[in-house]
Write a structure and sequence with these properties.
By secondary structure, the protein is of the alpha/beta class. It is built from eleven helices and 13 strands. Strands 1, 2, 3, 4, 5, 6, 7, 8, 9, 10, 11, 12 and 13 form a 13-stranded mixed beta sheet that branches. Helix 8 links the parallel strand 10 (268-273) and strand 11. Helix 3 runs parallel beside helix 5 (128-136) and helix 5 (128-136) packs across helix 10 (325-331). 40% of the residues are buried.
């Protein structure tokens, strides 16, 4: 039997992999990408011409989203915006689709947290991101549902919020938004510039024009010259949007029980994650001085199970295992006790003082209309 050849999807799509197999795959995916874009434009045309109306909720709606299918920091950004709104005295409810949770494929909506510090749904049902948001924002109701019109109405009926926040809502066309905040990873703002499946973009770069606020995340990973070049392109695509830059900053450590703890300095660690950019997670850990013996990158929203955790630990039972807060909400209940140490690092979106003020001003302007 001939050896099995595995292609790295990112290297294939970017063109870095110049092998015959990768070239043939790119050639086959290109017309499918054209069809995807044509279908998207045809779907959006009735909305653009006014033939089809977006559903309006009776309170302002803010969406946090991105153009690409990779992670840009939407969940920590939702946590930041939710916190800013609460600090301004507003009642907030957050709606999520609940990627990776069993409820994602079900009709209707469910409440993950009522804003009283209690989490009502397991991450296997709600998804990892809504569960994490419920932990980060214990005083904010979190709801999940595929149709944000339905979960939005449930939020209105149950919590009477002043504002509703959508986590990953840019592509939910059916619901009217009053403010679209779009995140771009400064290190790869438009990936290879192509839409799925030839590239990683859900929408073409020209659709950035819908944004009122654009945030370039992970700005710390690029040179000032590259950042300025990206800013110029964003200004051309979205000339009326507020343009902010942000970094992904460490936000403390927690043990498997969720208690605040210290960094595992001086220990040999195994890093693992099921996020869109596991390499960035490992890179950040090394930058903080952690010694990583092994890194294990699972797919985004990876569904952990007991057997998988046992196999992971077998890699080095004497090491301390480090992961993300997003993974911890799923892994904690599966981790053996007694077992090796398990720690999770939090991540926050860090804005400069001036950019955070500009973001707050944009939010306040929306809410006092």
């Amino acid at each position: 039997m001939p050896p099995r050849v595995c292609l790295d999807a990112k290297k294939v799509l970017s063109g870095e992999d110049r092998s015959l197999g990768a070239s043939l795959l790119r050639a086959g995916l290109t017309p499918l990408s054209w069809l995807h874009r044509a279908g998207l434009e045809a779907y959006l045309l009735p909305y653009k011409t006014g033939l089809r109306k977006r559903h309006r909720l009776p309170v302002p709606v803010i969406s946090i989203g991105n153009l690409s299918s990779g992670g840009t920091g939407k969940t920590p950004m939702a946590a930041l915006v939710g916190r800013l709104l609460r600090e301004s005295g507003k009642q907030v409810a957050i709606l999520s689709r609940g990627h990776g949770g069993s409820h994602e494929s079900e009709p209707g909506a469910k409440i993950v947290s009522r804003g009283d510090g209690k989490i009502l749904l397991a991450p296997e049902v709600a998804g990892d991101e809504p569960t994490l948001l419920a932990r980060l924002l214990p005083d904010v109701p979190i709801l999940v549902g595929r149709d944000r019109r339905v979960s939005g109405q449930l939020a209105i009926n149950e919590f009477a919020p002043d504002v509703i926040l959508l986590d990953d809502g840019l592509q939910f066309w059916q619901l009217h938004r009053d403010l679209d905040i779009v995140l771009l990873d400064a290190s790869r703002p438009f990936d290879n510039g192509r839409v799925l499946p030839r590239g990683l973009l859900r929408e073409p770069p020209s659709h950035l024009s819908r944004a009122q606020v654009v945030v370039l995340t992970r700005a710390e990973r690029v040179t000032p010259e590259a950042l300025e070049s990206t800013k110029n392109r964003v200004r051309a695509l979205a000339p009326h949007a507020h343009l902010l830059t942000a970094s992904h900053a460490p936000n403390g450590w927690r043990d498997r029980h969720g208690s605040v703890t210290t960094a595992p300095k001086g220990e040999v660690c195994v890093a693992f994650s099921g996020i869109a950019d596991g390499e960035a997670f490992a890179l950040g850990l090394r930058a903080q001085g952690l010694t990583l013996k092994t890194t294990v990158n699972f797919a985004d929203h990876h569904a952990y199970n007991k057997g998988g955790i046992e196999a992971l630990i077998e890699r080095d039972p004497s090491a301390t295992f480090v992961t993300t807060e997003k993974d911890l909400v799923k892994v904690a209940a599966l981790w053996p006790d007694p077992g090796p140490g398990l720690l999770a690092q939090g991540v926050k979106i860090a804005l400069s003082e001036s950019d955070q003020k500009r973001l707050s001003d944009a939010l306040n302007t929306l809410l006092i209309r």
